[in-house]
């Protein structure tokens, strides 16, 4: 006997459940991906951000701690005068070539200074002069470079181990803003030097709880549809078994009353 689950009606039910399962799987996958995608506000182009640079003194005060996840990589603008005599070199290898980053303080009108990384120069390369006139620069604010857990090493005069405010306060007689600013290509102070690459766009993400809740809803709806499908099939098979049992028991049930009405045998 053909299974009742292969009837035209049930074939339609099977196809409908498969369609629901496919839609729920696609919806679950889509919402899960959206739940962990970076917000549109986070996906930025650092170069384009320079057009919307904000004044540094609107973000930080001299000596104030800069949380890396709050202000790092922000495009800022600063007005002041360079102090060429305070130029320092920071050892750094560029594409396997030893050299130095050229840093110096940009002193604002209130006497505070921000560290500016003009760019990179090869070992024993000439450092171009920089103007002492008042300038307004735009660049990206980066956090201080950590020591990476290594023991500091001695450096020769005119150099510093890394760009860190904790080290530079001992070199310059100015209250310093935390972090340092790297200049874009084309800035006059970066001419003749290899510009430091702009920071990469943020790669972190914020969980989109709404999409995550939709993910759970889609998954639960799909699971409910599958459970309902299984229960329907079990009920259909149980009904079919009862119907077959009833058909098989029908002849015996008609003879049973006659045997009960037969008279007792002689001699009873």
UniProtKB/TrEMBL annotation:
DNA-binding recorded as keyword: no
TM region(s), chain numbering: 212-232
GO CC aspect terms: plasma membrane
Keyword list, A-Z: Cell membrane, Membrane, Transmembrane, Transmembrane helix
Membrane topology: Multi-pass membrane protein
Location of this chain's protein in the cell: Cell membrane
Source organism, top-level taxon: Bacteria
PROSITE patterns noted in UniProt: SURF1
Coiled coil residues, start to end: none
A Pfam cross-reference name: SURF1
Region Disordered: start-end pairs: 242-268
InterPro entries named among the record's database cross-references: Surf1/Shy1
Family statement drawn from the similarity comment of this UniProt entry: Belongs to the SURF1 family.
Name of this protein: SURF1-like protein
Organism: Nocardiopsis flavescens
């Amino acid at each position: 006997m053909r299974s009742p689950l292969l009837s035209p009606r049930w074939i339609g039910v099977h196809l409908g459940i498969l369609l629901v399962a496919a839609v729920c799987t696609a919806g679950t996958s889509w919402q899960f991906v959206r739940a962990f995608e970076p917000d549109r506000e986070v996906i930025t182009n650092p170069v384009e951000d320079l057009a919307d640079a904000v004044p540094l003194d609107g973000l930080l005060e001299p000596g104030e701690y800069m949380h890396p996840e709050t202000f790092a990589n922000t495009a800022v603008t600063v007005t002041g005068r360079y102090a060429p005599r305070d130029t320092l070199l920071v050892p750094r290898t560029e594409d396997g070539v030893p050299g130095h980053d050229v840093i110096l303080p940009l002193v604002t009108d209130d006497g505070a200074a921000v560290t500016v990384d003009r760019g990179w120069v090869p070992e024993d390369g000439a450092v171009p002069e920089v103007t002492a006139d008042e300038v307004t620069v735009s660049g990206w604010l980066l956090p201080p470079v950590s020591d990476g857990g290594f023991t500091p090493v001695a450096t020769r005069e005119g150099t510093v181990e890394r760009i860190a405010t904790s080290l530079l306060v001992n070199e310059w007689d100015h209250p310093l803003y935390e972090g340092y600013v790297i200049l874009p290509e084309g800035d006059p102070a970066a001419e003749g030097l290899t510009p430091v690459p702009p920071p990469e766009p943020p790669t972190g993400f914020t969980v989109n709880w709404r999409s995550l809740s939709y993910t759970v809803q889609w998954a639960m709806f799909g699971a409910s549809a599958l459970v309902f499908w299984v229960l329907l099939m079990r009920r259909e098979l149980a009904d079919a078994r009862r119907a077959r049992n009833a058909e098989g028991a029908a002849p015996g049930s008609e003879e049973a009353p006659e045997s009960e009405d037969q008279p007792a045998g002689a001699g009873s």
